[in-house]
Amino acid sequence: MPYAPRIASGDWALGRYVLLDGGAPLGIVTRMKMKFFSLLALAGALLAGGCVGTLDGHSKAGLPGSNHQFASRYERSIAQVSAATETVLARDGKVLGHDVINNVFHAKVNERDVFVKIQDVDGKVTQVTVQVRNSMVGDVDLASDIKTKIALQLAAQ
């Protein structure tokens, strides 16, 4: 039998058409594929764009671009600031680790990851950077609260 082209009839402009030879309605399948791949692309963009660096040098899943860390400077030694930081983190949550090489504390407070990095600016001034992350975004309120509690602990010493 010679080749017979498939003949279709219907409203081509609206995507509603039916093949006369009993094939599947291609307009519906095409729209379903477009919706599926659009959803797949959106999900991939949300998941792939979510790596944020933490103060201890590792990466954590999350949405970049959110301000979730605060820095403060104090005229105190690194030892005094470290003691105040450890006291505040132990009182408010659980200290998970202290990286003595990079001088970074890692703690859990209110089911959020808290990172506090202590750096020597010059001989007299020490910088404290507080970063708080929950599952995907930063918690600015808790970071500000911990920063304030460290300052109050330093004032009480």
What does this structure look like?
The chain has 157 residues and is an alpha+beta fold. It folds into two domains: 8-48; 51-156, Alpha-D-Glucose-1,6-Bisphosphate, Chain A, domain 4 (2-Layer Sandwich). It has helices at residues 26-48, 78-92, 140-156; strands at 8-11, 16-19, 51-53, 59-61, 69-74, 94-99, 104-109, 112-120, 126-133. The strands form three sheets. Strands 5-9-8-7-6 form a five-stranded antiparallel beta sheet, with helices on one face. Helix 2 (78-92) packs across helix 3. The radius of gyration is 28 Å and the shape is elongated. The mean pLDDT is 77.
Biggest β-sheet: strands ordered side by side in the sheet = 5-9-8-7-6
Tell me the series of helices and strands, N- to C-terminal: EEHEEEHEEEEH
Unreliable spans: none
User: What Rg, in angstroms, do the CA atoms define?
Assistant: 28 Å
Distance between the termini: 97 Å
Q: Please bin the fraction of helical residues.
A: 25-40%
Question: How are the secondary structure elements laid out?
Answer:
Elements: E1 8-11, E2 16-19, H1 26-48, E3 51-53, E4 59-61, E5 69-74, H2 78-92, E6 94-99, E7 104-109, E8 112-120, E9 126-133, H3 140-156
Antiparallel strand pairs: 1-2, 3-4, 5-9, 6-7, 7-8, 8-9
Helix pairs in contact: 2-3
